[in-house]
Structures
1.
Amino acid sequence: MTAAALFEGVVHGRAAVQRRAIAKAITLLESTRAEHRAQADELLTALLPHTGTAFRLGISGTPGVGKSTFIEALGLHLIGLGHRVAVLAVDPSSSVSGGAILGDKTRMERLSVHEKAYIRPSPSSGTLGGVAEKTREAMLVCEAAGHDLLIVETVGVGQSELAVAGMTDMFVLMQLPHAGDELQAIKKGVMEWADLVLINKADTDPHAATQAQAQIRSSLRLPGQHGRPENARHGALWQPLVLQVSALQGQGVDRFCAAVAQFRALQTANGQLVARRERQALAWMWERIDAGLARAFREHPQVKSLLPRMQADVVAGRVAASTAARTLLLAQATTE
Amino acid sequence: MTAAALFEGVVHGRAAVQRRAIAKAITLLESTRAEHRAQADELLTALLPHTGTAFRLGISGTPGVGKSTFIEALGLHLIGLGHRVAVLAVDPSSSVSGGAILGDKTRMERLSVHEKAYIRPSPSSGTLGGVAEKTREAMLVCEAAGHDLLIVETVGVGQSELAVAGMTDMFVLMQLPHAGDELQAIKKGVMEWADLVLINKADTDPHAATQAQAQIRSSLRLPGQHGRPENARHGALWQPLVLQVSALQGQGVDRFCAAVAQFRALQTANGQLVARRERQALAWMWERIDAGLARAFREHPQVKSLLPRMQADVVAGRVAASTAARTLLLAQATTE
């Protein structure tokens, strides 16, 4: 299928035709074959004018926090309000395990079969940077196909949360109603990225949930958290919220949606939505450039042949690390 | 002065001669002029066999926590035990302000004039990566000159703490005896890097200090903090300590030194000291390679001429970030 045919199917296709075109387009974008890459770039460039109006919601939380249950409840609620919802995943472990637990359709039984929803598991190969890039591109496909609410989920481990916060308009952190968990998130610095913290399963321990809510609220109010100068240019700033929900009981989903709408309205009015997307797009470009430079360097024949000895010399303390770096850089530059 | 002459002065010079040679060697290593770089690499390679036995101690804390007072007390105490002490600084703000507050000799009046001590302020130009590289290299000079205890200080802001933790054998975080501060450190994830946390000025508020000590201890015991698999290979592992001191009164300095000695003995016995240095050296090499690749990319004529339009297209949503990245990478690769 050509890029033009895929474009037609994604943007103008109906029902099953569109669904198949979305899947094929994403598969093309995920391909690592060089001849597919030119086609993929052609498709991306064609799709771009049809993107930009959807809202991009990132949701993170450790395994067991109830992400799938919440996303299914949220997705069905939003569809009820007339939206079309796409769910994508960034799974840092999928490159190791080969399987993708996140975005697993069997975990979202009702949402996955809904004609107004599209669910795509995590790309199952590549580095985290590669997986994140594929997910960003898949997001553009879903958006061009008319999905106006994009949900990107990830697990609360490692760098994947940063990657998801860096590709969405609003980043939501899900927590359980016990101490420890939120302290972990505070400790890892992830809390700083949250626009909203959800305490799920609040009904299982209302007292703990209320305590956790107060604790997280106070941690979010620490100096240094808000009022970054870059944010202070346009009017009022968003103050992160901490809400209690019970996804299994469907409690709090409407309150959450109201908070998202409020966030979106404020960020649009104060210019932060546009500013954030511009920053994200440039950061994404530079991240891909850095990754490309690193790959080309490691694959350079002269570097490849020098590297093992250089690394051994550095580890053994025979050559300073900065000297080794300069030697290798020079080897690449002078033999190209 | 040739690299060979500088080497002689640094390694075999006496008193004032050696002191001058150290200063000149560090100045040479800090030079960004291309013709100095070859000389600098020659000097570094010659000095390396004379390094590796000193202990490298990183000390971080927000302004006002009492770093200088503590380092002076510690340095004089160590000199009293027969050591030679060098104090270096990584100041992330020095590239902006041009001045270096850290490692300022006027703040360590007694230590700075001691013949067994050498104090060097932060390199005052370049990116944080550049400043860190210069400090690493200066550390090697001081070590080759016979300083067996190297202290690298930094302020508790931004990435500089990670840089210092990544160039030292033991990373110490200084805190004040009030809540808030240590929560900040926990939040930023810096606490995870600390091998030891010092609560300074404990005498000004003994109750708060004891409370902070308990709070930090409990946060350091959270799951995920210890028992990383890579650390579990050789015997007993270090458990981070939280100590109270009062640098101004000289209280707790001997207890701190005992803890450092304990840490060093354990890390030597379980193989972690060597493993950490090997990891640091390789990470340092790759960091300098990445920085060099990024610089060469940005300075490439074809990239320079394409970049403004590409960035504008990406920001405006006309070209996908990944497409722009590939276009720029191709432009560099095909016109070299």
2.
Amino acid sequence: MTPHTVVACCQLAPRVGDVAHNREISLQAIHNAARQGAQVIVLPELMQSGYVFTDHAHALNLAETATGATVSAWCEAARALDIVIVAGFCERLDSTRVSNSAALIDVNGVQAIYRKAHLWDQEKHIFTPGNEPPPVVQTRFGLIGMMICFDLEFPEWVRLPALAGAELLCAPVNWPASPRPVSERPCEVVRVQANAAVNRMFIAACDRTGTERNVDWVGGSVIVDADGYPLAGPLETPSNGPAMILATLDLKQARHKRISALNHVHADRRTDLYDSARRA
Amino acid sequence: MTPHTVVACCQLAPRVGDVAHNREISLQAIHNAARQGAQVIVLPELMQSGYVFTDHAHALNLAETATGATVSAWCEAARALDIVIVAGFCERLDSTRVSNSAALIDVNGVQAIYRKAHLWDQEKHIFTPGNEPPPVVQTRFGLIGMMICFDLEFPEWVRLPALAGAELLCAPVNWPASPRPVSERPCEVVRVQANAAVNRMFIAACDRTGTERNVDWVGGSVIVDADGYPLAGPLETPSNGPAMILATLDLKQARHKRISALNHVHADRRTDLYDSARRA
């Protein structure tokens, strides 16, 4: 394992329904990021398909399996460049069901598939929710977990890969833009920071850009350190075209969970009380 | 219940060991805040005693019960002004044990005592940790929960009063200052924002100021709305003397947990998965 890990988020503008275009721009971005030294490259949620489907049939029609053309192309890039890729795709589960998925790919191919467990809005009419906790994969660049977008709004869910040892959580996201006070950082980014801090785990969230069927996006890609402070980003470029952020991470910091002489972010959890209070 | 609730955080500078002084400045601040319209007034953690004890005996010597002089004086103020006060004090539990506690007081006296469950650093050598979840009290200004400082770093703990219906969480804190990147908002404040947003619950965190035995403080008092954005503060006045923030809250916003046509911040939790993953 190298002492430091260079992580990139490629904030791109997929077009819903144009799978060939989306594959092409994702491969360009991967090669560009790798040229700049990136070892772990995160792409947006549903990079392969775009996001704003008309309905379930639309998504099913665009879906691919983990052995389909797009994930295979990403595997080829990971092999050629000796990198890790975490990217979102619309996964065909069987003849009728689709999942909002992310693949973790390294030089040897697909190492894990994660299926979004917390579905946002109309996704509930389209996707089958995942029922498995986020995988944590030992890569040669560090222990990497993954989850997708709205999953990040459930701190209980973020705890799971953190407790399983993830040093870096890679999160493909599509954050729809919503009003916020002038000069405030988007609350989506704030939640990423808090999730990182309470777990002492690095998080790389890769958002998208490019208005799609009248939906705009935060465009807030960010790479946050184990203290919860941004190392790169947050970008704030809604509809202003693609962008990339890059940061060099000392992932071993995430192995040190002590935050004072007597405190440890995980050991100090009083799970007995959380449980008993919930049962009451 | 009034349609809106005016909340104040009085960021004061207690002196460790000077209980009479601390009581006096707290009463002055309460009366001042009430004159400006505050209906709910939050004071810092350990307002009554100060924070940086030399040892357990020091804290035990300063401790009072919930019928002691300081809490009684706060009860008198709450009765005279018809307000709610949430304030921290060093509570004597018995002849040998002390708790880092907060009292919620209204016109009728003490309505609840909360005892800090997650102890910070040397507090572990001084205080007996609480074993009860944060109380949620129906006041005439709204449903109010409370917790103390480091408790806020455990999102599982913040869930409990939120699930119990709290519209406003009042948090006396003493945030020790620590280095952070220039121009970044303190991560303590960021965590408060995230806790509010993922629960759609208002949070008022009242920090302290005034260097005490070489410990300085963030001085980051903040009142955050149910979307996670500050309505007042964050103050950033370490050692710059006392200050007050005031905000008018529409607490009924916290009763609406829907964040899209199909999403609800609490109902969307997949507790079965959190549990099974933890047992695994």
